[in-house]
From TrEMBL:
Residues 1-17 have a biased composition (Low complexity). The keyword Metal-binding applies. Residues 174-360 form the OBG-type G domain. One of its GO terms (molecular function) is ATP binding. It comes from the Eukaryota. The keyword Metal-binding applies. PROSITE patterns: G_OBG (PS51710). InterPro entries: ATPase_YchF/OLA1, Beta-grasp_dom_sf, G_OBG, GTP-bd, P-loop_NTPase, TGS-like, TGS-like_dom_sf, YchF_C. The gene is ychF. Residues 1-78 are annotated as: Disordered. This is Obg-like ATPase homolog. Keywords: ATP-binding, Coiled coil, Metal-binding, Nucleotide-binding. It comes from Symbiodinium microadriaticum (Dinoflagellate).
Amino acid sequence: MGCVASTVETSEPESSPKNARGSQTAPNPGRTLLTSSANSPKDAEAEQTASPTGLRNSRPGGFMLNEEVTSPVSPGKSILRSKSLQGLGHKETGRRATFDAVSLQEEELAHCRSVKRRVTLGQAEVREYRVQMTQSRSSEGNRGQFELVPDDRLDKLASLANSEKVINEMIEYVDIAGLVRGASKGEGLGNQFLGNIRNTDAIVHVIRCFDDENVTHVDGSVDPVRDIETISLELVFADADQCEKRLKKVEREVVGQVKGAKEEKEALQKVLKVLEEGKPARAAKLSEKEELALQDLSLLSMKPVIYAANVSEEELAAGNEYVKAVQDFAKETGDQVVVVSAQVEAELKSLDAEEVQDYLESLGVKESGCGSLVQATYRTLGLRTYFTCGPKETRAWTIHAGWKAPKAAGVIHTDFEKGFIKAATVSYDDFVECGSEEAAKDKGKLRIEGKEYEVQEADVMHFRFN
């Protein structure tokens, strides 16, 4: 999930402090979503600094979204789930500026500008666009960890329940050394870098969508679609190489009548056909059974993509021709586009909470780019949020759409899933209207759901288990 190199300098991360609202920051996540990046004028100086090897930091880059469930401290304790984004992007696309804006790591730029392999981690909690940071170095990448907030629903529930603590879901950003043309053939960080991406669930590709004569582009001109295709092709080439090697082995397994080999061979041939056309593996439109046959390969171009179009502050609301080009491109592939501005995100972190909305409204937008990105991530990965609510704490939990109640309970603790009996459930709207779980029960709004219940967005749940 992080940056790769031949010699790695690492120091132990600082212990994660409790955040201002009582939650504990999560350890390093395990499942991920990758993103690539766009640039802003603020990024120019940082990206032009030469690395110790004499090479400029001119690699495409991105962010990976990770998801992990940590082990509980003791039976009955909540399991902390986190999300993580790992960043990559072209030189002067705003990878550094975007990461700095969302993780408040400007003071740590010195660690990253001149070092190819030694990188900085930052654990952060975001609430109302304010961030608390702790930092450390690692070979995995520059990190900033955030709550997915503000979430007015969570705050409302907490106020009704007089909760001592409010605990939001977390998101982690990892900025890594990037991808160069030829990475699939070993250029730059090569296959080591690509191997890190394989642990991701999706890709957020941050793209430069602004003009600035003071900010050069690695290819000499601004062309977001070209930048998309540059990174996409490297992933396609890497996948094709992997599939070809795997196919040779599977063909021998077919001869030996190994179970599942025939199905895997057919799926590999189907994917190779589109890869040879320069298209991503996801264009093969595999069946669920075929995807299952290839899941161990973790094909890079099989992952869903979110395009984050990085624009100037002046063009955040209306967009521009570059944004339209990205939107047209994404329309053909069925991917989502989010318009962001690293400049605006950097400004937001200097404002008081009450000033944030006024500033956004003055720009003609309703929410920050980071907020839009989080929403796009949830849609892309098919995620839902449910709540647990009580006097000790009110907490948000993220699950995949379609999960039944026992599996949803399992994100709190595995014992909840194994011993699941039933779940007292009330919708968020009904809970707020009634004012409490007891009042909801008195008014017939509280439901007792069993093992086959599919948890809905914003359900407020109380699990009962053996």
